[in-house]
Amino acid sequence: MIQNDNEGGEFWRARDLQELLGYAKWEHFAKVIDKAKAACRGSGHDPQDHFLDVRKMVDLGSGATRAIDDVALTRYACYLTAQNGDPGKDAVAFAQTYFAVQTRKQELIEQRISEVERLSARKKLTLSEKELSGIIYERLGEQMSFARIRSKGDVALFGGRTTQDMKHQLGVLDTAKTLCAACTSKLTACREWPMMY
Fold first, then answer.
1. Which sequence spans correspond to the domains of the chain?
2. For 116-139, what is each residue's pLDDT tens digit?
3. Residue 74: other Cβ atoms inside 10 A
């Protein structure tokens, strides 16, 4: 295991990763790290937050020690380094495949969480609407009052647009699906909507 831990969190040493990815010479691996830093910068992150230049003490054959260049890498930096490595090396190709598979797994997990949250918000909305409809009917004795109040709530939820406007914009016919589609992008607003009444 090449992971290291300190008070600031986990990190990996580039010299250890170099061996793991099958690079014999530091000079060649340093070029991969430079490409990874460029990718980091290109994605809007500061490379200094993920690639920290350090020195490492190594033992010499005479029993003395000497300091050599090394880089402390975050998990993200390790990912970028593997992605910028030579895919002709079996270890690099394996690492690139591993990270691609893990990324897809994470996407699927996030998608599932989003679906569960959306369904939960929709159930809460349905219960709130039933409760509110009952209260309005009990107090006013008519169903049309609920429709007028709901219409005002939809205008507030959709930033001044009516339910009909949103149906047209989202390309759906059903009111519940309109709310569901809107809630996918504005889940927080959807959760708070029943409390507006």
1. 3-86, 121-196
2. 998 998 899 888 878 877 887 777
3. 19
